[in-house]
Design goal:
With 274 residues, the chain is of the alpha+beta class. The protein contains six helices and twelve strands.
């Protein structure tokens, strides 16, 4: 299956009171992309909460690879509905069993102070000045050159990556759909920071080789509204790499520097087998 745009991916078919079906999508490696399943699971969860509630956080575990030739069935467990928050658990299933488990929390907006001590990176080239590098017809990714991220560091084993990102189709103004689209693209940069922190894997990647990597889990905290269909910056650093598991944290900023989201992920990264 090949989705024409994200609107098609997010248009889930309701098959029961708490059950939804989403189409798969073919990706270059033949399986399903983690961001695809996270985004659809978040969309399924959101269909069971009041419309005025928006996602403020999610935590997902990738259980087994998905099959793009099969639909994905999302079962939603309505954990709790309170006055300000609603909590949902979603399990994504295919014929081989569960492929993802996600928990999401939704919050009714409140008036409060707005404090943002995290600053966006400065001095970046524009997206038009960066090389296009993506593997899907659903989003665009433009890496900030290594020499800009770390001037003078010829090896760049810092575990630090920055990229411009956006989805490629008009997805409208609904902040929920924008959040789902951000979840979709957020999985397309995190493992690279882990790879760059590893001297052997970093060198393999720099020389055009393939490095095995797989997302193990994925967490997001949605702070402020952002349009995923406009250029925005993902600034990601690796905080730990042990037992071939790389832990990365990233901050997402809109083009005006607004801190919109924080992302964390642990991924398995391994040298190619001989």
């Amino acid at each position: 299956m090949v989705a024409g745009d994200l609107n098609e991916l997010f248009d889930l078919l309701r098959s029961g009171e708490n059950e939804y079906i989403g189409i798969g999508n073919e990706y270059p490696w033949g399986g399903l992309y983690g961001g695809h399943i996270v985004a659809q699971a978040l969309r399924a969860a959101s269909a069971t909460v009041a419309k005025e509630l928006l996602p403020h956080s999610l935590r997902a575990y990738f259980i087994r690879p998905g099959d793009h030739k099969e639909v994905v069935r999302y079962g939603v467990d309505r954990i709790r509905d309170g006055r300000s928050f609603s909590t949902r658990r979603v399990v994504a299933n295919q014929p081989g069993g569960a492929i993802l488990n996600l928990e999401a929390s939704f919050h009714r907006g409140e008036e409060s102070l707005d404090i943002s001590p995290i600053a966006a990176p400065t001095g970046l080239p524009t997206p038009e000045q960066c090389v296009q590098d993506h593997w899907s017809n659903l989003f665009d990714r433009r890496w900030i050159p290594r020499e800009v991220v770390h001037p003078g560091d010829t090896h760049d084993e810092s575990g630090h990556t920055i990229a411009w990102m956006k989805v490629l189709h008009d997805i409208g103004d609904d902040p929920l759909i924008q959040a789902c689209a951000l979840a979709f693209v957020s999985d397309a940069i995190m493992t690279d920071a882990a790879i760059r922190s590893h001297p052997v894997l970093n060198e393999i990647e720099r020389n055009g080789g393939d490095v095995y990597n797989a997302s193990l889990d994925h967490s997001m905290w949605f702070h402020r509204p952002i349009r995923a269909d406009q250029w925005h910056v993902h600034d990601v650093k690796c905080h730990s790499l042990v037992n071939n598991r790389g832990l990365t944290f990233g901050h997402v900023f809109s083009s005006d520097g607004t801190h919109a989201c924080t992302v964390a992920q642990e991924a398995l990264v391994r040298p190619p087998r001989k």
